[in-house]
Amino acid sequence: MEHQLDYQHVEQSARLHRKIADAITYVLLAVWALIVLFPFYWMVLTSVKSYGSYNAEYTPSFFTLTPTLENYRDAFTTVPLARYLANTVLFTAATTAIMLVVITLAAFAFARLQFRGKNLLFTFFLSLMMIPNELVVITNFVTITNLDLRNTFAGLILPSVTSIFYIYLLKENFEQVPDELYRAAKVDGTSDLKYLWKVMIPICRPTLVTIAILKVIECWNSYVWPRLITDDPNYYLVSNGIQEIRENGFGRENIPAMMAAVVVISVPLIILFLIFRKKIMAGVSRGGTKG
Amino acid sequence: METNNRKGWLYLLPAILFLGFFMVYPLIDVFIYSFEEGYNSASQTYFGVGTYNYSYVLHDPYFIQAVKNTFLLVIITVPVSTGLALLISVGLSSIRPLRNLFQTIYFLPYVTNTLAVGLVFMILFQKTPYTDGLVNLILHWFGAGPVDFIDGPYWAKMFVLCFYTIWVVMPFKVLILTSALASVNQNYYNAARVDGTSRLRIFLRITLPIISPTVFYLIITGFIGAFKAYSDAVALFGTNLNAAEMNTIVGYVYDMLYGDSGGYPSYASAAAILLFAIILTITSINLLISRKHVHYTN
C-alpha cells in the first residue's frame, strides 16, 4: 500500500516537472516567434499610419485607430514602385525560365547520355561549386561594362542563368528514372529530346518546381549584381528601388510611405511561401544557402 | 547505352558557355587583375606586374576597418546564432501542438527581401529628432538612456548589425537542425529514459553527438556566410558604409569596383582574393577541429 502511494507521488512530481519544462519551452518559442513577427507587424502598422500622425508620435504607439491606405497610393505615384516591380517580375521570370532550360539539358546529358569526358567534366563542374560569387563578380562587371550591356536586361540576367548546384540536384533526380523507360523509348524510335520532354520532365516535375521556386526567391531578393550593373532607375529591381527610395525617395523622411513600399515588395514572396511552404522548406533543407 | 559524343556536348553547350564565360574566365582574370599595377579601366592599360595592389589594400584604413568589422560580426553572430538555433530546435522538437505554426513563423525571414526588412529594423532602432524609436522606448522602460543605434556610437551600430544578421540567418539554421533532430532514432531516447537519465544529460550525451555533423556543417556555412556579409549592412546603414564605419570586406570590394570611390578593379580583385584566402584558412581550421569533435558514425 505504501509503495503504491510512493509511485503515485513519483508519477505526480514527474508530471509536474514535465509541465513546467513544457511551459518554459513554449514561452521561449513564443518569444522568438514574437521577435520574428514583430518587424512585419511594425511595417504593416507604420504603413497604414498617416504621415501627420506618424510624425506627431514622439513615443511610437503600438496600434492605430485611423488606418489609411494613402501611403500605398503615394508609394505608387511619388516613386516608380510599379516599374521596379515590373522590372523585378520580368527579371525573375526570364532568369528562372532560361536557367531551367540550361540546367535541364545539362542534367539530362550528365544523367542519360554517354560521351567521352563526361566524368571529368562533371568533377570539374562540382569543383566550381566552391567558387564564391564575390570572386568572379569583378570581372563580370568589367565584361558586362565592356559589352555595353549595363542598364539592360541582358546584362542583368545572363550571368545568373546557370547554377551548378541545381544541375547536380536535377541530375540526381533524373538518374532515379529507371533505365528501362529510356531503352523502351529508344526501341520505339523516340528522340532524346522528345524523351526528355515527354518522360523525364513530367516525372521529375516536383524537383523542377522546387528549383524554380528557390530561384524565384533568389532573384526577387538579389541586390549586389543589379546594383553594380544598373544606375538608371528605369532598370532598378525592387532591392535597388528600396535603397533609392530610402536615399532620395519621398522627400523628407516620409517613413509611412516607405513602409508601404516595403510591404508591397515583401508580400509577393510571403504569399508564395505560404502556398508552397512544404516544398520551399524541403528544398532549402536540401540545398539552400543563406546564413 | 550508345556513345554519342557530339550529342552529349551539344546538350551541355549552354551550361558550358555560360559557366566558362561568367565563372571560369573571371576566376582566372581576377588573379591577373590583382597583380596588374596601376590598371586603368578606361584605357585598359597597366604599368607593371607585382604585389602593389595587395600592399595598397592592406594599408588602406578603410580595408582595416572592414576587416575589423567583419571579424567582429563573425565572432559574435556565428556562435550566438548557432547556439540560439540549437536551443529553439530542441524546444521545437519537444512539443507537438503549434509546432507547425512555429516552424512556419520561424522560416519567414528567409523569404523576405533583406534590403526591405532592413529598413524596418533601421526604423525600429533609429533615433531621430522626431522620435526616439521603438527600441529606445523599450530601453526607457528599463531605465536605460536613449541610444542612436544607426548614427550613434560604434558598439551600438555593431549591435544592430549583429542582431539583424542573426535574425536573417536563423531560419536556415533552425530548419536544418529541426530536420536533423527529427531523424535521430527514438530508441536511444527510450533507452535513456528507462535508465532515468536527466533531460540535460540526454541532450549532451545522446542528441548533441548524433547531430554534431549537422551542427558542424552549420558552423562552417555560418562562418563563410558571415565573412561575406554585405547587404545586411547596406540595409541598415545605407550605401555609404565607409562613412558609417560599418563597411565589410565584401562591401570594400564593391566600393572599389563601383560607386563614388570605384573604378579600381585591381584593388577590388586583391581584396576579394584576400577575403577568399581568409575564408579558406578559417574553413581549413574548422575542418581540422572537427576531426576531433565530430562523430560521423550513425
Short description:
Chain A is mostly helical.
Explain how this protein is built:
The complex is a heterodimer of chains A (291) and B (298). With 291 residues, chain A is mainly α. Helix content of chain A is 76%, strand content 0%. Chain A is built from 15 helices and no strands. Chain A has helices spanning 2-47, 51-56, 70-77, 81-112, 118-128, 133-146, 153-157, 164-175, 179-187, 192-203, 205-221, 224-229, 238-248, 255-275, 277-287. By secondary structure, chain B is mainly α. Chain B has a domain at 60-111 and 155-293: Orthogonal Bundle (MetI-like fold), CATH 1.10.3720.10. In chain B, 71% of the residues lie in helices and 1% in strands. In chain B, helix 3 packs across helix 11 and helix 9 (199-227) packs antiparallel against helix 12. The two termini of chain B are 37 Å apart. Chains A and B meet through helix 1, helix 4, helix 5, helix 6 and helix 11 of A and helix 1, helix 3, helix 4, helix 5 and helix 7 of B.
Supply database-style keywords.
heterodimer; A: 291 residues; mainly alpha; MetI-like fold; flat; B: 298 residues; 12 helices; globular
Task: State the CATH architecture of the domain at 60-111 and 155-293 in chain B.
Answer: Orthogonal Bundle
- What is the chain-wise order of helices and strands of chain A? HHHHHHHHHHHHHHH
What characteristic shape of chain B results from the CA principal axes?
Answer: globular
CATH H-tier superfamily of the domain at 60-111 and 155-293 in chain B: MetI-like
Distance from first to last alpha carbon of chain B: 37 Å
Overall SS class of chain A: mainly alpha
How many strands of chain B? 2
What order do the helices and strands come in, and which of them pair?
The complex is a heterodimer of chains A (about 290) and B (about 300).
Chain A: H1 2-47, H2 51-56, H3 70-77, H4 81-112, H5 118-128, H6 133-146, H7 153-157, H8 164-175, H9 179-187, H10 192-203, H11 205-221, H12 224-229, H13 238-248, H14 255-275, H15 277-287
Chain B: H1 5-35, E1 36-37, E2 48-49, H2 52-59, H3 61-93, H4 99-107, H5 114-125, H6 134-141, H7 154-182, H8 186-194, H9 199-227, H10 231-237, H11 249-257, H12 265-293
Antiparallel strand pairs in B: 1-2
Helix pairs in contact in B: 1-12, 2-12, 3-7, 3-9, 3-11, 5-10, 7-9, 9-12, 11-12
